[in-house]
Amino acid sequence: MRILVGYTPAPEGVAALDFAVAHAKLTDAHLTVLNTGKNGDYSDPVFATSQDIDALEAELDKSGLQYEIRRPNDGLSATDSILGIAEETGADLLVIGLRKRSAVGKLITGSTAQAVLLNSPVPVICVPANAKTG
Questions:
Q1: What burial class does residue 49 get, using C-beta atoms within 10 Å of its C-beta: 0-12 exposed, 13-18 middle, 19+ buried?
Q2: pTM, whole model, 2 decimals?
């Protein structure tokens, strides 16, 4: 099994990662962690810092899982990156985090989660920021 998780250094990204790690351990799955900024922009606040990635690698090394971390900066939207890498890696499952937004906020900025849900060819698990996984 192959799991792709969308990761940001925010509560919803951490919750998605925690869920994906726990599920990968249960199923002996390979884990791909994807962190991308808006349109692949390294300066976007959701693009993890090198310290965030170092901590993430240390945590994943301790987990014993097979994993890779992807940080594309190709200018693609987060949705296109998630769906493209899911296809490229042969992901069987996508895990994404959800944050609470107002209806107006969704209308103005769109929703990556909604676009992934509507366009994914594989099952998607959406994890809220306050989820408890262990």
A1: exposed
A2: 0.88
